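step: validate -> pass
step: tokenize input -> pass
step: predict -> running
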Amino acid sequence: MAIQALSTTAQMALQPAGEGSAEAPYQISQLGHLVWMDETVSQSSNVHYRLMNDIDVAETVPVEEEEKFRGIGDDFSVVKFMGYFDGAGHSIRNLSLRQWGNSGGLFGTLGPGSVVENLALIGCRIVGSGGDTGAIADANCGGVIRHCLVAAYMGGVRVGGIVCVQESGRIERCTVTGCVTARYDPDSGEIYGGNVGGVVYELMGGTVTQCYSTAYLTDVSAFGSKGGFVWGAWPSGEMSDSYWDMDTAGTSSSACYVAPDAETGVGGRSSADMRRQATFAGWDFENTWAIEEDRSTPYLRAFPPPFYLSVLTNGAGRVEIDPLKAFYQPGEVVKLTAWSDAPGFVFARWNGGASNQLSTVTTVTMDGHRMLEAVFVMATDVSTVEELQAINNNMSGTYRLAQDIDATATAAWNDGAGFAPLELDGQRFTGIFDGNGHVVRGLAVNRPESAGIGLFSEVGAGAIIRRLTLVDGTVSGYAGVGGLAAIVYGGRLEECGADCFVSGEGRDIGGLVGLLRSGSLVNCHTTGSVRGRDYVGGLIGMASEGFNVVEHCYAMGPVEGINYVGGLIGTCEWNFMIDQCFATGPVKGEYRIGGLVGQLDPLMVRRSFAVGSVFGTERLAGVLGGLFGNSPSSLGMEPGEPAVAGECYAAGRLITDDNESGLTSHSYSYPAMYWDMEVGGKWHSSGGPNRLTAQMKQRSTFVDWDFENVWDIGEGVSYPFLRESGEGFRLNVVAVGDGHVEVSPRTARYAPGEKVMLTAVPASNSVMLACWTGDVADEDLRVTTVTMDIHKTVVAEFSPAIDIVTVEELQLIGSGAEYPENGCYRLTHDIDASATAAWNDGAGFIPCRLSNGGVLDGQSHQIKGLSINNPPHYPWAGLISGLEPKCVIRNLGLSSCSVAGYDAGSLAGLVFGGGRIVRCFAEASVTGAEFAGGLVGRLEGTIANSYAVGHISSASGLAGGAVGAVGWNGRLLRSYAAATVAGGAGGGLVGQNDFIAERASEASFWDMQASGCEASACGEGKSTADMRLRTTFTGWDFSTVWGIDEGVGYPFLWFTHLSLPVDTPSGCAPEYAAWAAAHTNIWGTADFSVLPWADFSTAWLLDERPAAGFAGSAGFAVSRFELGDEEILVELALTVGGAAKQGPLNGWLAVEGLNELGGTWETVAAQQPSDVPLSFMSGSASVVFTRPAGFRFFRPVVRMSGGGGTALRAPAPTP
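step: predict -> pass
step: emit ->
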């Protein structure tokens, strides 16, 4: 392996040993001998030369014309080589030839009777700036070239891999790899354009037999063109049994020009086929050729593996090679990284057979000897936001970001319109912009009535934007809006990212690109929010026309639109490929919504996944899916035809009121695609099989997936993840509205299975948490956790709180602008609603409406005496008539209430799919004409941790203690009913179940004796005695949610039995109630109203996770904990368990603090061994310590004597 830059060492002619006869050929062993051959080429007729060894020319390019090795001989118009050159299985390596004003090649022209054979040119650069270039010879006029190998860089105006022009003669059993390019300027690295052929530029006569080319071919001028094997073929020339690699050549045409009656006799093959012996029928693989099946192209036995890799650099830059070795085995993959470290230079491209010619990071598969060149070109440095704006003056230039740029000032530019998207009189950007790994922070583009809005307005063909990230920016327009580029026409974006808010009222709105046409995005990402109307995507709004490629990309921001909305891409049309991508953000829309893609037409999607929640507001069939909003029905695909997707999965929640599908709304089946039906909440899927969450975390589930190269999995703890995304999972936490989220611990990556605590902090008491969106433990608690089993996005939605104090205010919910249907309401006190019995001429309370994310949070309060007496024809009767998708009623109790209507439930007549009721209870009399339930009349959403008691009846007989009827995908979780059920064939828990019985309920029960029902459409019936035993309710949380008076009463929600401090702030009651519930046995009381709020909240911070509680194991609890400006006071009180211990209970107290800088717990104050130990003989003990600076939270540590000498710590509070 060699890395090589152009150099300037002169070469002198040296006569070799030998006589020049067949028996005693001249012995060529160094570069000086080749120079001698050039000087004596006029005497070469019938002279024999033999290469005695490999020649590795490290530095061969002189400065001055007369000192330069120009090759052997001149072009066919002057002096021809007439001799016999036998390479004898040796190679010439790293030779650089520049023929200024002439043609280029090792030999100028081969004359009649000449022979060149058994020679390899490896890692060479051969450039003829004046005309024809061929690696072996400019021209063949009657000579024979056979058994030769070329792995080189060749450039000129007219270029062929072996020879440029063949007038006559033969080329037999030769191979070409490397790069064959049109006119090339080695000083600037620029290509100006011409014509190229893989093996021969122009075949005017003679024959070419059993040869092939795997060379990368390029022609960039308006008049240039390329032929995979030859550029032009004439009738007098013949080709047979020969091939070229169409993938690396970039053309499916063997010749650009074929004269009438000419026969090409060659075949284009894919790279994969070029590594298979069967492709080369009739070739002699016994004596001449050999191949490593699927790992190498055919190689001449004279030049066997291992293979040599040569990487050249042109311009100021360097290349890292991994692994770096002298030689490589067939099939070995080598990673190449181009670095443009020098000021004023950027990487432009790879010349040669790299897997990606334009990416700074690429790979090369060693299927033969290989040669590549990294080209670096001069660039204009951009150091300020003003210089960034000045790119408008030259949209074809080459630019490099020299440092991070603060663009926050742009918010005030142009009368508030901000930064002007980069364009010049409608011109597209066609140059190179290398961000060099820097960021542009705070960019503001505010043009809501304009189209084509982004940092770049339009990016044209050939343009490259790489290694640039926008952070903390805002980009708004009307249509065609993207954070980085509004529209990309054939350009390439690589290693780019955007953490910006992107919005538009029209179509084609994307986090990075609004509209992509015939372009490519590689290793790009977005984490910001995207909002638009139609064709909206987290990464790309719409991709259409031509062939588009999106590889190794991800989007982790929330996406919201109306039609055609996708977590990664809104809509894909025409030919398209998505490979190794994922989306984690929540997606919201109405029509054709998908976690990965909203709508797709002809394309390939493979090795990708989506785990974000998908929310559809309209009840439309067949338009919403966890992965694809719709699949390619327009393809006209029939069963058995090739699938367009594979090795994909979806594990995001579907929130909709309709019967939607997990993977795709289309019924076409895709191979090796899976859907987590537990997380999704939809127990069926089109497009692939359903699996339980546990199965989705087992490698054996994913049959035939590539877990060696592409996928990995934390067995039993994570979903499959892409290996290229690196170790650990990313967590993107987004706060929407007036508030923020505290994350603990906060790191860049999390281990599989690691739990992360999230605390939603409203900006003021007038703001409340509406909900969490994402895979969190509890969507409605201010403090929740997320388990990192894959990359995840969690959104905390904050909303202005509308306080409900009176029953009259309760009636106003959903009534108008001040009390909207999507408002977030909270009860600040218990409400006496008994007066509603006389309202509306006896009809009572009019059911309220909640829609589009509306919230009713009881905050542990109750509504007492509510009366609803709707006419029988009124559709839904309950406190809320119909609870629509993404709406919630939580932490609320109804007592002594009466509800009557058609479909009747005390809390809601109907809960649509995606609606939920959490931690609620009802003590009610409910009567329904059709369905009647103690909590809900008809359930298509979710009820969790709730119960109903009272009397339930239905004229149709469809009554249930908790729910009248469970619709498709409705679920009842950890809930119970102990209500009498009358009116016919009712059910103790559920009257009718339209869903799958075993999935409609989980750990839910009814009292068979109290209800008078032996049966239920779902759930498990128990006796009254069993319903009063904690052991009955397996899996229930009896520490923070539920309590029970064992053997005496039914389970109760803790908030109904706790008296909290009177000054408890709004919004905090549920969390603090849960904490207090876990400590009632420790503290010996359920009444905390006598405690000052400050003391209570400090205690809650000190012990936020009571399951590992300090007090329960130690035998004493924190009875007082005060943090003063200068002192810390800790008082410990003996518990009942501690008092029961034998012997004296003594201990020494210390305090640990959380270091604000290091994030570690350190002992900051402690009793010394000489101090008198703590004694609890009086029931309590206290110590005062000096409060140190630099620490945020504190916890006590007790070392006990007489109790085993164990150090006991209170659990850590949230930093």
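step: describe -> The mean pLDDT is 84.
step: cleanup -> pass
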